[in-house]
Amino acid sequence: MLFEGLTFFLFFFSNRKLVKFGSFAFCFGIGPCIDFWGYVFGFLEGQGGFAFRMGCLLLGSLLIVLSFAYYIPLNYGLQSLDMYSVSIASLLKKQYGVGLTITYCTLILLAALLGVRPGVVTFVATFAYGAAIDGVRKLFKW
C-alpha cells in the first residue's frame, strides 16, 4: 500500500492525465483484493505436481494479459506499475510492452538490492507479459 500510495500521489501531481478514479481503486484496493483471493485460494499453495503448477501459471498469466490488454485502453486510470510503464514507453516512443519490461527489470534490480530473490513467475512476467499484452491489444483493436 505504501508503494501504491506514493506512486498514486507522485503521478497525481506530476502527470495527472494517467490518474483517474480507476487509479485510485487500483492503488488502494488491489492489496486488500489480492489478500482476499489469496485467502480464498490459499489451499492450492504447494498442491499438485509440476503440471498443475504450470497450468496455474499459464492460466494466471493468460488472465493477467487479457485483463491488462482490455483495461488500459479504456482510459479509466492506470494502476501504479502501468503509470511507470506508460510513462517510460512514451518517453522512449515505444509500445507499452517495452515500458512494462523496463519497469519490471528495474523492480527486480531494486528487489535484488534489498535481498529479495525473484521467482520463476517474476521472470515470466518480466519478459513475456509486455509483448503478449501488446499483441492482445491489437486483437481488441483499441
Task: Describe the 3D structure.
With 142 residues, this protein is mainly α. 75% of the residues lie in helices and 0% in strands. Helix 1 packs antiparallel against helix 2 and helix 3 crosses helix 6. The longest helix has 22 residues.
Write a compact overview of the structure shown.
This protein is an all-alpha fold. The protein is 75% helix and 0% strand. The chain has six helices and no strands.
Spatial separation of the terminal alpha carbons: 31 Å
Q: Sheet bearing the most strands, described?
A: none
Mean pLDDT across the residues is 88
Quaternary class = single chain
Low-confidence stretches: none
Characterize the overall form: globular
What is the number of E strands? 0
Derived from helix and strand composition plus strand pairing, the structural class reads mainly alpha
Cα-atom Rg, whole angstroms? Answer: 16 Å
- Beta fraction: under 5%
